[in-house]
Amino acid sequence: MSDVAGTDDDLDDAEEEEVPPPEDTDEPEEEPAEDKNLYMSHNRVWYVIPPCEKVGKEYVGGGWIRNYNRTCKVENAKALGEVVHDAAAYRAASLAAGADGTPTLSPDKVVVVRGKLKPEDPDYNFFWGMLFETSDGQTSDDHKIFRMMPKSVFGDYSKGIDSNPAFARSSLQTYKSTNGNVKAPNPIASGFVKYTGATPLKTLAPPKGKAKEESDAAPKPKPKAKPKAKEEPKAKEEPKKPTAQCFFKPQSAEAKNKAESSGAAEADEQAQDGPAPKRARFEVVEKHNYVFTGDSRTLTIPVPEGASPTTAQVVATFRFD
User: Fold this and answer.
1) How far apart are CA 187 and CA 44, in angstroms?
2) Per-domain residue ranges for the chain?
3) What are the φ/ψ torsions at residue 97 (nearest 5 degrees)?
4) Nearest 5 degrees, angle CA 186-CA 190-CA 194?
5) Residue-wise pLDDT tens for the chain (321 aa)?
6) Do residues 291 and 251 touch, judged by C-beta distance below 8 A?
7) DSSP state of 15
8) Which residues touch 71 (CB under 8 Å, ≥6 apart)?
9) Is the sign of the CA dihedral 31, 33, 37, 43 positive or negative?
10) How far apart are CA 208 and CA 84, in angstroms?
């Protein structure tokens, strides 16, 4: 910042500023605007910063004591919001070169306000700031709104003025901030009144945090999908061989009891009818039901009583419940 304050362009501004009529070394070159008030925001309420009253050569009360109505221009509302809410953006905007190639921050753009931090402060302090507006032609009141200069920008710029002999008679030497520009003035303690104009003040700077939200909400380009890797053909799975255990299911207790009851009933009937008469048998077909339990795998087929067969043909039907 110090080399910015010491450029030839700044010297020209300083010479224009510091060679005025003898009565007032801070008389601006241009006619002041009709509305001489500046404005500041405090806790989301607008306050009026009037021209500081002067009695003789002494200032009385709070108000602005140095203002040439020269603004620092930024590109758009988003950039203005960054300057208002971020010290780094304020520094970047003040260091940027203007359309004519001259530094944005020059002595004639420094606004000085006289005010207090607390009502009980015995003396008034000086506070440095600037006026910003957008260069895109949008209408607003930003050119009249005092934007407090961050302490880092104030420190570097004031050091540059101190080290440059051309600014030895500058009013900025007289009105240097006595608190290091650490904090903005308290409008109530400084005697500033709330703005009650018929037309609300308009600033293009979005509220703190909104600019970032809008930036985050902006659609972001979708990342390109990565090409899918070729999948290797899966090896065919061999069918699983069923185990012997899969084929047989133990008989339930209910079915077992039913079978035993049926067998007992048949035995009772045979006992009542007496033994069946023997006769020659040429072929006997019998049906037997079996239930496999546990790991049993053996079928026992009884030979018909009283017969001496020579051959047998067995057809087994297996069911899987």
Assistant:
1) 12
2) 2-216
3) -85, 145
4) 80
5) 444 333 333 334 433 343 333 333 444 454 444 689 999 999 999 999 999 999 988 999 999 999 999 998 888 999 999 988 888 888 888 777 766 666 677 888 999 999 999 999 999 999 999 999 998 889 999 999 999 999 989 988 888 888 888 888 888 888 988 888 999 999 999 999 999 999 999 999 998 766 555 544 555 566 666 666 666 666 666 666 555 454 445 556 666 666 566 665 555 555 565 565 555 556 777 777 777 776 667 777 777 776 677 777 777 777 776
6) yes
7) H
8) 109, 130, 131, 132, 133, 142, 143
9) negative
10) 9
Task: Tell me the pairing of strands 53-55 and 63-66.
Answer: unpaired
**Contact (Cβ atoms closer than 8 angstroms) between residue 148 and residue 129:** yes
Q: How far apart are CA 40 and CA 84, in angstroms?
A: 12
Task: Name the DSSP class of 150.
Answer: P
Q: 268-273: long-range contacts (C-beta < 8 A, 24 or more apart)?
A: none
Instruction: Note if the pTM is more than 0.70.
Output: no
Cα torsion angle, 152, 157, 158, 162, sign = positive
Which distant-in-sequence residues (6+ apart) come within 8 Å of 303 by Cβ?
A: 309, 312
Residue 105's SS3 state is coil
Shortest CA distance to 289 belongs to which of 281, 276, 304, 299? 299
Secondary structure of 186-245 in HEC code, one letter for each residue: CCCCCCCCECCCCCCCCCCCCCCCHHHHHHHHCCCCCCCCCCCCCCCCCCCCCCCCCCHH
The DSSP bridge pattern shows strands 146-148 and 63-66 to be unpaired
Residue whose token pair is 């109530």: 188
Q: Which of 173, 128, 118 is nearest to 148 (CA)?
A: 128
Q: Which residue has the tokens 């006595």?
A: 178
CA atoms within 13 A on the CB side of 126: 17
Q: Which residue, chain included where needed, has tokens 């050569």?
A: 57
